[in-house]
Specification:
Layout: E1 8-15, E2 20-27, E3 32-41, E4 47-53, E5 59-66, H1 67-71, H2 75-87, E6 94-102, E7 113-114, H3 117-124, H4 134-147, E8 152-157, H5 167-170, H6 176-179, H7 190-199, E9 209-215, E10 219-225, E11 228-232, H8 253-262, H9 267-276, H10 279-284, H11 290-294, H12 299-323, E12 328-332, H13 333-338, H14 340-349, H15 359-363, E13 370-371, E14 380-383, H16 388-403
Parallel strand pairs: 1-6, 6-8, 9-12, 12-14
Antiparallel strand pairs: 1-2, 2-3, 3-4, 4-5, 7-8, 9-10, 10-11, 13-14
Helix pairs in contact: 3-4, 7-16, 12-14
Bound molecules: adenosine-5'-diphosphate (ADP), acetylphosphate and magnesium ion.
Length: 404
């Protein structure tokens, strides 16, 4: 009797600011087939939740941490928990590689790269440039390198997709002795934008001028011209641009000088303020979670959501200028894919550019990519679900094939 061939698997790890997601892909001859995915959400809140499912939706594992237990459940503890779970749920597959989302690749890494100790050390120098993410992104790769040194690991960078931006879009108006140190605008959420850019041709938007709104816990906009990034709202760090779940987004730099001089805040106080105490959470005083704010009767919750959509509206104007026109607006990520209210408000702010929302389509878009503008709308509006994990698995497989 012939034994069934054991197929190989690629593990993808995507550590966001408030969640860690993992996906297991079977590396079949011609395709990557997702067979299990899961996430822990609500890290560093009082209610962390783990769930893993088969693609059909049936739950394979679930757990909740509440109160002080949840407070102590950080990214490192969550990674250990997840790796334990993965190793007992491989369903007969043999792991051939692990692909990681790594937020900052600096000026050095403009394409996915194999991870070894030297590369991880270099990437660790970017920790100050992404204080919410980089440490958490690198930790699983380091622990796997220590426990299973022979396992092929790949880093995929959020900054890489933006390497095509023209120099002017990347520049700060600062003296050369500072910009020469790599102090420039990089842009983030690049794996998400790269995935969306790959979906645009099928929507008839392959050569189009498109603004993609990646609205998750972190939020940014990207101007894509014929599939390439030409500008984005995030810069040197992932705190620039839009207000986010807990991040301030763009501020008058004079505010920082004022806080240092008049409120005696040091660098770590400012970091905490800008990355963890601002944005939707800071303005509302209630929550960083859009679902909570949208159902809250509190005026401060409404103010936070209004400020979020107002700033998106203004930045859309800025990116349309960078593109020299606009053919389509695309919503993606947690808020962009699921909040009809946010999409409606943003489209309202962009009406002057020629966006005309179809309210029915926006309220009931169904699964997958969906057009939510009227047939006569000069600028099309779409929801396109993103898939950073699929993008990471593809890059990992490509490097793996090249390496063997
Ligand atoms: N049904 C929904 N309605 C409104 N907002 C939602 C919905 N589902 C998820 N979100 C919001 O999406 C955000 C998280 O987005 P996500 O892309 O998963 O974040 P990240 O990967 O950065 O942690 C949260 O603000 C959450 O409230
Ligand atoms: C770069 C970034 O902000 O990522 P996330 O949205 O996952 O926090
Ligand atoms: Mg995310």
């Amino acid at each position: 009797m012939r034994r069934r061939k054991i197929s190989n698997a690629i593990i993808v790890i995507n550590a966001g600011s408030s969640s860690i997601k993992f996906s297991l892909f079977a590396d079949e001859t011609r395709q990557l087939e997702l067979f299990l995915k899961g996430q822990i959400e609500g890290l560093r809140t009082d209610n962390a939740h783990f769930i893993a499912r088969h693609p059909a939706g049936d739950v394979v594992g679930e757990r909740r941490w509440t109160g002080t237990e949840a407070g102590a459940f950080d990214h490192d503890a969550a990674t250990r928990f997840l790796m334990g779970f993965i190793n007992t749920h491989l369903e007969g597959h043999k792991v051939e590689a692990v692909g990681h989302r790594i937020v900052h690749g600096g000026g050095d890494f403009t394409a996915p790269a194999a991870l070894d100790a030297a590369v991880l050390d270099r990437l660790a120098t970017f920790v100050p440039l992404a204080p919410l993410h980089q440490r958490h992104n690198l930790a699983p790769a380091r622990s796997i390198l220590a426990s299973t040194p022979g396992l092929f690991q790949v880093g995929c960078f959020d900054t890489a997709f933006h390497a095509t931006q023209p120099p002017l879009a990347q520049a700060f108006a600062l003296p050369a002795e500072i910009t020469d140190r790599g102090v420039r605008r990089y842009g983030f959420h690049g794996l998400s934008y790269e995935y969306i850019a790959g979906q645009l041709p099928a929507l008839g938007l392959g050569g189009a001028k498109v603004i993609v709104a990646h609205l998750g816990n972190g939020a940014s906009l990207c101007a894509i011209d014929a599939g390439r990034s030409v500008a984005s709202t995030m810069g040197f760090t992932a705190v620039e641009g839009l207000p986010m779940g807990t991040r301030s987004g763009t501020l008058d730099p004079g505010v920082l000088l004022y806080l240092m001089d008049e409120m005696h805040m040091g660098p770590r106080d400012l970091e905490k303020l800008l990355y963890q105490r601002s944005g939707l959470l800071g303005v509302s005083g209630i929550s960083s979670d859009m679902r909570t704010l949208e159902t809250s009767p509190e005026p401060r919750a409404k103010l936070a959501v209004d400020l979020f959509t107002y700033r998106i509206g203004r930045e859309i104007g800025s990116l349309a200028a960078a593109l020299g026109g606009l053919d389509a607006l695309v919503f993606t990520a947690g808020i962009g894919e699921h909040s009809a209210g946010v999409r409606e408000a943003v489209c309202h702010h962009a009406a002057w550019l020629g966006v005309e929302l179809d309210s029915g389509a926006n309220a009931h878009p169904g699964e997958g990519a969906a057009r939510i503008s009227t047939p006569g709308s000069r600028v099309a509006a779409w929801i396109v679900p993103t898939d950073e994990e699929q993008m990471i698995a593809r890059h990992t497989r490509r490097l793996l094939t090249g390496a063997t």
